[in-house]
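Researcher: Here's the sequence for the chain we discussed earlier.
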Amino acid sequence: MKFHGTMKVNEQGHLEIGGCDTVDLAREFGTPLYVMDEVLMREICRQYKSAFVEKYGNAEVIYASKAFLTKAICCLMQEEGLGLDVVSGGEIYTALQANFPPERMYFHGNNKSASELTMALEAGVGRIVVDNFYEMEMLDRLAGEMGKKAEILLRITPGVEAHTHEYIKTGQIDSKFGFTLPNGQALEAVKAALKKENLVLHGLHCHIGSQIFEMDSYAYTARVMMDFIKEIQKTTGWTAGELNLGGGFGIYYADGDEPATITDYADAVFAALREKAEEHDLPVPKVIVEPGRSIAGPAGSTLYTVGSIKEIPGVRKYVAVDGGMTDNIRPALYQARYEAIIANKADQPPAEVVSITGKCCESGDMLAWDVPLQPAEPGDILAMFCTGAYGYTMSSNYNRLGRPAAVLVANGQADLILQRETYEDLVRNDVIPARFRK
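Model: Thanks. This is the structure I predict for it:
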């Protein structure tokens, strides 16, 4: 069991986060409840800026908002001096509603719509990361019709297979994302972009996957991309001024996870870039990285209330909670592992091995298999760690369950940043045809 950030066991024997007793949080805000440690989020943001920007200079850190996005989180990232990686009109709209500077947004996505691209152009989004030839043509046309120049990067699929779950690999040749490098498509994309009247090409983007522990994967990718930048220069005379290396930096979820430090990450990337820059007589481009999970993940915990408990002698003991795959789909989708604790018995050692299940009508609605836990009883508050990334943003209303609330905690204060969905929210968009209302 590994505590993160401001977590500790208080005098009452309860788990405390951000100076707030989690049992009190559950009582005040209800469960399930996402609890975000503001101090830890800010600390990780500053570690990224120190490792990349302050140490190496020509770099930028942008938060991958798909990990966890609310208007409050946008405000936090703006205060910490990070940019935003956005992947939809909805994420752009959320950021704009929080008055986040559009010029510090990078707009990604493999199937951006005309309306989303128009929205990005109108807002003045800093970079649009073009993913395919269809988008390139559409963006050039839209920008021309609006009398604008679209500032772009090209997403490149470098052919690098990171060691991670199959569903979250993105850099291999067989990927839905980007222009493929090994088969020559990426070079053709660069040539095409340079000819467009309404596109201004600034550089390249790549992303090899998520939950990556091996820094050699990042170093190798940096070398591959620098080789490609040299090939482009020889072929076209154009030199990329920006290189976005994506995100995917792995975090600790459970025993066996051994993430590197952010400093290790930055040092590996810049060592590879400088080596290749010297070899090819190239300037080191501006480096952009897109951490999401590694900022939000460790800072988030989910509180649940324990309900039914079922023991099958000699087989397994199930502890059911009032959430599940609707607020954390990752265990069902990726076989993700988590650690948990009974928050109101945090001063007690684990006494049994149990499996934590949700309340959805699915056998696969499991949050954790065979984890050590304090003796669980109905009404206990269970806390699951490192749920800050891809919990809320991948949540659903399956079984007509409302999405949980979220609070940001720091220095003994808890601020609501997401309201709990009500039954009224669940039927808000329902429409009964007139023929049923006779």
